[in-house]
Every structure is written in C-alpha cells, then in structure tokens.
Amino acid sequence: MTPTASLPPRAIASAAAFSPRPRPDAPMRLFCLPYAGGAASLFRDWPGRLRTPVEVVAVEPPGRGARFGEPALGDAHRLADALAEALLPWLDRPFALFGHSNGALMAFEIAHRLRDRGHLPALFFASAKNAPGLVDERSPLHALPRAAFLDALRERGGTPPEFFEHPDLVELYLPVLRADFSLSETYRYRRREPLATTLVTVAGRDDPCMGEDALLGWRREFHGPVSHHRIDGGHFFIDTHLDALAALIDAHLATALAAATARG
After folding, report:
1. Annotated catalytic, 101?
2. Which of 37, 102, 199, 260 is deepest in the core (most CB within 10 A)?
3. Number of C-beta neighbours around residue 15 at 10 A
C-alpha cells in the first residue's frame, strides 16, 4: 500500500489537470492520461497536432510533473476517485477520454465514476492496454527488490537507457515507478453496466498487449459503436508514431463532435 492510500480523494486532487493550450470556447474537451512513468507533459504538443476544435486537457497523477512533490498513489481505485473528482469542473461540455497503457485503465475507471455523477464521455480511446477484465499481473514488479525492479524496467523497454546511468535520478523516480506498476498489478476488476459510449481501441503492430482476447474484452465494457486500429510500432507508439496516432484521434473526434453538435 502506498503512503497516500489513506488520504481522501479531495486531498490528492489539486493541480490534477491543465490545458496546454487553453481553448475556453472549444465545443469539446479531450482528457488525456499518460502511461506508467509518464506525466501530463506527454500531451503538451497535442493541441497543435489536432485540427478538430477541441481543448486538450492533460491529466496529471500525483508524484510527477507539476505534482512531483506529492506522494505517488499506487491504488487504481483511489486514484480514479481523486482524478474523477478533479475533472468535474471541466465537464460543462461534451468530452472524450484517451488513455495509453495504464492511462487507459485509469480512464476506464474514471469514466464509470463520471457516469455515476451524470457525465458520460462521448468517445473513449483505449490505447495499448489489455481489457480491464483481463488485467492479471501474475509476476508483479512493483514489490521487487531495487535491483530486480530496475532490471525488469530495462527488459520491458520504454525507459531511456540514460535514466539508469544517473543513480540520483533513479532514486528520485523509483517510488513513482513502483506506484505506477502497482496501479495495474493490484487492480481489482468489477463488472458493471457497459458504458453507452463510442469505443476506439488502438494497438501497436508489434505490441502483444492488445490481441483478439483484449479487443473482445474491451468491447464487452461498452454499449455503442466500436472500431479498432493498429499503428506501426511497439508498446510506446504514442512516442514513436505520434503523427499517425494524432491523425486517427483527430478523425474520431471530428465525427464525435459532429454527432454532438447535431444532437444540440
């Protein structure tokens, strides 16, 4: 259990979301959640890559970026409680949710909490993550001894090799990385009424995270139109093939916005 596990949601929800390029008149918002070890800065350039008139809102979990001084939280359900609460002031217009890897799992839990509060996303992007009902980490990494944990990070890729060459940096980020892996590795799935939302799943061609079982699993969680896309690259195609990903997201946002506008 992480140090913040006993804190109420409001205590860890401050500074949890920001817009890299504010667009207060935009008719739709896109909330973006980063992968394990990532920060909201991952989405800083996204407004310039999307032609659809949406406001990008980057979600910042505690322990990184602007919230680096806060203890990281490794319980997915408590973190979802906090982040959903923090997003409530932004829900004055239609919105979409995008999450990559662990971010997709968090977006899924946030979507259910927002629906319970009367706010349903118009569009949900699940990127590079197994379906929530299939998340089953049989070899949890977050509790490994330091050396074994760092070896596992190297083997998985996605972490710049230079990171491991700076012991002070490693020690600084180690609690955040452990907490992020804990989010998925201690996740407790609960079956609920499917979300009446358009689902878009995105997978890297060389990433085994989203096979046929994962796609079927995601479809079971939604009651609405579903589409699946594959993009060149591995698990971190969000970094290596961002142009292709942005174009795909842009197309779906334009369709969702047109539908929302037609409904009035």
Report:
1. yes
2. 102
3. 14
